[in-house]
Write the structure tokens for this entry.
Amino acid sequence: MKKLWRSLSNKKDSSETNIDDIQMEHIPAHIAIIMDGNGRWASKRSLPRIAGHHEGMKVVRKITKKASELGVKTLTLYAFSTENWKRPKTEVDYLMKLPEEFLGTFLPELVKENVKVEMMGDKDLLPSHTKRALEKAQIDTRDNTGLVLNFALNYGSRAEMIHAVHKVLADVNNGILNKEEITEEVFSDYLMTKHLSDPDLLIRTSGEIRLSNFMLWQLAYTEFWFTDVLWPDFNEEHLLDAIRTYQQRSRRYGGLK
């Protein structure tokens, strides 16, 4: 059983990042991040929770830029889960405005950096202004060939898998798919990540050690890295620390090295 590593790093000045010891030929192709701790960051400063979410939005920009510079192919960010609708309406309303604010501010920079914006999750429940902002970003960056910035928004892994099962059953019933042909690879093609590789590295901030219904199928052989650092305090050096740890791991996928 893989050991779950915890980093107890303190906040560092992002200007001090040093990649001399990073194996550039061994950068994780797909990094997934559970961005946790925005509310606690705000509470510690006697600020409203939305202040933490706003600060966390700035971190998304920094980490996206650094991941792109390192040559990461895909960066998936858990922005809003299917369970987050249970939060107070004022907080949910603000969270639904964040994609519009983030993309409205940083979309030109993402275009310039050759970043391609994508989204996975159920769009049907999203407010129209949130969907418009995401659709515009996807259209404006669809020809970009660099980092894929994949927002998991109104996303839940269990719902994703149930939806995939429904599609598989429909294709079997319609004669498109034979049930004997169903393999792990075939099932993966019915998921929202069918065009993406599975994550190589999962990062979760804020000290919590759980997956919270995030990419349960795709994370089967992903390396996990947990840190007590709250998301608004997460910086480029923390990202490099996670990658350094990843590069020290031996990925055997159930076999022997």
Strands lie at 5-7, 30-34, 74-81, 116-120, 148-155, 201-204, 223-227. The radius of gyration is 19 Å. The CA atoms of residues 14 and 236 lie 6 Å apart. The chain has a mean pLDDT of 93.
